[in-house]
Structures are given as C-alpha cells and as structure tokens.
Amino acid sequence: MSHPLPDDSYIHAKLSSSYAQCIKQSGAVTFEMQSCMDQEYAQHKNRVEQAFAKIISRPDSVKKDQQMDEIAAWWENTNKYCNWDPKTEGQGQMLDAQSCRLNRIANLADKLSHY
Question: How deeply is 77 buried, as exposed, middle or buried, from its count of CB atoms within 10 A (0-12, 13-18, 19+)?
Fold first, then answer.
C-alpha cells in the first residue's frame, strides 16, 4: 500500500472470533493465513450483498442515490489503498493488502447494516 491511509477503516474492523482462532492456528503460514482471510471476507461480502440488495430494492430517492454513491466511493477507495503489486512487492505486502480489503469490507458490512 503506497498511499497514506485516510482513516482506520483500512486497518481495524470487528472480525469474528473464528477468524482470530483461524489466524492463531495458521502458524503464520502465508497460505493458511490467506485461507482464513478468504473465509472471513466471504462472510462479510455476503452481508454487504444482502444489505446492498435491500438498498437497491427501495424506491428511487435522494437518500438512495447518496447511499449508492457512498458505496461506490467506498469500493473505489478500497481499490486505491488496498492494493498489491506482485511484480515489486512480496508476501508481506500481499497479506497487508488482503487484510486491508478484509477490514474495509467488514466495516462496510457494519455500516450498511444501519441503512
């Protein structure tokens, strides 16, 4: 991640206890850690998709447009700040980028649950 982060939603999120246990049991093996992150990411992605479906099913409104714009900006910023270049960066940076994306989607899921 080559840019300074705008806020802590990129580095902190409320993640499941099963994720913490999985990471603990991974033995710091990259493949195992990635698997833990993938599982947790899938859970939060499902939450985002469910919340998004509710939002888009609502009648058109200024509020709905604002929410959709906010979600689009959220993804754009995630793609900007949570990236990894396999040509110039190593496994540590790859895990950092994956962790960043996980934190972002978990935070987005929490945010959308209040919409």
Answer: middle
With H, G, I as helix, E, B as strand and everything else as coil, classify residue 104. helix
Decide: helix, strand or coil at residue 83: coil
Print the SS3 string covering 21-79: HHHHHCCCCHHHHHHHHHHHHHHHHHHHHHHHHHHHHCCCCHHHHHHHHHHHHHHHHHH
Tell me how far apart the alpha carbons of residues 14 and 63 are, in angstroms, rounded to a whole number: 26
Over residues 26-85, the pLDDT tens digits come to 999 999 999 999 999 999 999 999 999 999 999 999 999 999 999 999 999 999 999 999
Which residues touch 46 (CB under 8 Å, ≥6 apart)? Answer: none
Q: Which helix (DSSP H) or strand (DSSP E) does residue 91 occupy?
A: helix 91-112
